[in-house]
Amino acid sequence: MAVTREDVVKVAKLANIAIDDARLDALARELSTILGHMEELAQVDTERVLPAEGLSSGGQRLRADHGPADPLFNAPATFAPEMRDGFLIVPRLATHEGSPERSP
Amino acid sequence: MKPPPRAPDLARKLLAQPLTECVACVREGGALPSDLVSAAFDRADDVGAGRESLNIFLATDRVRATESAKELTALIGRAEAPGNLAGAPVAVKDNIATLHMPTTCGSKVLEGYVSPYEATVVRRLRANGAVIIGKTNMDEFAMGSSTENSAYGPTRNPVDIRRVPGGSSGGSAAAVAAGIVRLALGSETGGSVRQPASFCGIVGVKPTYGRVSRYGLVAFGSSLDQVGVLGRSVEDTAIGLEVIAGCDQLDSTSADVPVPRYELEKNARLDGLVIGKPKEYYPEGLDPRVAERCERALDAFRELGAEVRDVSLPHTSYSIPVYYVVAPAEASSNLARFDGVRYGLRVASESGLTGMYEATRARGFGPEVTRRVMLGTYVLSAGYYDAYYKKAQSVRTLIAQDFRDVFLSGVDVLFTPTTPTPAFELGAVKDPYEMYLSDIFTASANLAGVPAISVPIGTASGLPIGGQIIAGHFEESAMFRAAFGLERALAGKALPGEGSA
User: Fold this and answer.
1) Do B394 and A49 touch (CB under 8 A)?
2) Residue A102: what pLDDT?
3) Which ipTM did the prediction report?
4) How many structural domains is chain B composed of?
5) In which residue ranges of chain B is pLDDT below 70?
6) What CATH number is associated with residue B64?
7) Interhelix angle B120-127/B234-244, nearest 10 degrees
8) Which of B53, B84, B184, B362 is least surrounded, with the fewest CB atoms within 10 Å of its CB?
9) Does residue B188 contact residue B205 with C-beta atoms inside 8 Å?
């Protein structure tokens, strides 16, 4: 199935990646070629086959439900750009830099 | 009488010796860990490990490595057990979290990022006396088969500097092949340890899914990823795997299965071992040099008393299409976290929050990562999910069933080529799908979750060729038994024209 330029625009939006207009056609071609190779999977009869879900037969192990399993070696305050009242403050967006702060 | 060797000379020699000898010498006080660290850094200088030449490391920390070495010396002085890797310099792939060096995954999006926690595998290495000397170059987020996709420039193959070392653990493979370290950690999603091991003429192990903790391994394809070991010899990798393997409370996908002592397989006999030769891994168009070396390896197995049996894994040809649906799908989800808010790079945008995400990811991700995230998003999107993702996961079930059937039929291990060709030249493979075919013999083991090892089986025009031994789930002992036997049988047996590189 050929991937169109419009498909690339839509997928880029879903993937949160800005793609230059100049790159759209090339990317559509590349994805079409790769997906073309995937189409041989249609030849396989999988009607009575369950999709793979987990590789370990015993399923996922559970741990006791108490506290964080592993405290960080470095406390958040040592690597966070800014902290207030135990919360991490992320940088403001460029579009909001001039706007007044709301109190927490 | 000859004077005893000077400490630096001894350390340099030890670096070229099996890990057991190096570690024994350190434990007995014959060599100082700090001399081994110096020897590793001297060797890195001698072989041109720097960016302008082999470009093996993305970060090194000589000061801290020397401090760690001195702490180890103090431990030995207090008669405390220094561990099975006492004093051994080790390199770690840059997608494995370390506390004092950045963990960038070879990506601009994580430039300068230092993890606030340490991977379990790194903690286990250090607890066993290993000294981490640096973080190795890799294809960005482990997406690639040549280490040409690193945002920090390609690594080159120490065997032939015009060629790629394979990937994505190319830096780790090159560090071992260049003699800087005896042991390095890599990671596997579709062959990223075995393929570079094959290209560089060393040994590379991918353990069973769940054998080794992934706590601190930056996720790429969560149903496929495993930490692997690269080393100069089968024994070195056996010791390395034993150190890092085992259940970990911090990774709920690590399995609670006892870890055997793999190095005890070193002198085990191969009489009665059944080795399967799957026909799908020996297609008509296989590079004759690779086919010839594999036949010689199979003859060596027969001489050791093993039985070689023709077998079939009928869904093998679908492994690449399945892998390149499943892995990008999982990657598109795992890499969603790199959005300019939580980690590293942040690119300002006048289009609000979404604009900031899009601009950050556009500048932070290289072309291959962008391609795979797009591919993964596409196959998971409404209308295409059943045709691609669900279909691929169903065929994956059949691929895993092939392995179960063949091992249930009485076959102990499988023997195949690791790669279709020896190392290619930098820039030689331009088409993305052609590059994906580098994993044609390795991806199945990841899809099925079974362990596999690549062992050097000869050279062609000086270029190394690897043979792969695949075993059933948690049957690494059988895998090592066959690998030790093969290594022993091929030692010193060069074919005409093989010569050393």
Assistant:
1) yes
2) 59
3) 0.91
4) 2
5) 1-5, 492-501
6) 3.90.1300.10
7) 110
8) B53
9) no
Whether B256 and B367 map to the same domain: the answer is: no
Cα distance between residue B118 and residue A91, in whole Å: 26
**Residue B4's pLDDT is what?**
61
> Hunting for tokens 């945002």 — which residue is that?
B151
What are the sequence ranges of the domains in chain A? 5-42
Domain membership of residue B306 (yes or no) is no
Catalytically active residues of B are 93, 168, 192
Chain A residue with minimum CA distance to B360: A17
Omega before residue B172 within 30° of 0, cis: no
Burial, B167: exposed, middle or buried (Cβ in 10 Å; 0-12, 13-18, 19+)?
buried
CB contact under 8 A, B118 and A73: yes
- On chain B, the residues whose CB falls within 8 A of the CB of A88 are none
Question: Residue B256 is nearest to which of A34, A35, A61, comparing CB atoms?
Answer: A61
B244 in Cβ contact with B212 (< 8 Å): yes
Q: How far is Cα B51 from Cα B3, in angstroms, rounded to an integer?
A: 38
10-residue block means of pLDDT along chain A (104 residues)? 92 97 96 95 94 67 71 80 86 76 54
pLDDT of residue B265: 97
Strands laid side by side in the B226-231 sheet: B57-60, B131-136, B89-93, B183-188, B226-231, B203-206, B452-460, B463-471, B413-417, B274-278, B307-311
Task: Answer whether A17 sits within 8 Å of B365, measured CB to CB.
Answer: yes
Which of A20, A24, A38, A48 has the highest number of chain B CBs within 10 A, making it the mutation to test binding with B?
A38
Cβ contact, residue pair B378, A35, below 8 Å: yes
- Residue B204's Cβ-count burial label (10 Å; 0-12, 13-18, 19+) is buried
Give the range of the structural domain holding residue B65, as residue numbers without chain letter.
7-265
Same domain, B230 and B362: no
Q: What is the pTM of this model?
A: 0.95
Residue A101: the pLDDT is 62
* pLDDT tens digits, B461-475: 999 999 999 999 999
Q: Which of A7, A12, A69 sits opposite B249 (nearest CB)?
A: A69
Q: So what's the pLDDT on residue B501?
A: 38
* Cβ within 8 Å, pair A49-B118: no
pLDDT for the residue numbered B498: 57
Contacts of B392 in chain A (CB under 8 A): 38, 41
Other C-beta atoms closer than 10 Å to the C-beta of B410 total 11
* Closest residue to B318, CB basis, from A17, A44, A58: A44
The verdict on B342 and B202 lying in the same domain is no
Chain B residues in contact with A33 (beta carbon < 8 A): 431-433
* pLDDT given for residue B27 in this prediction: 93
A16, A60, A72 ranked by CB distance to B117: nearest = A72
A38–B393: do the CB atoms touch at under 8 Å? Answer: no
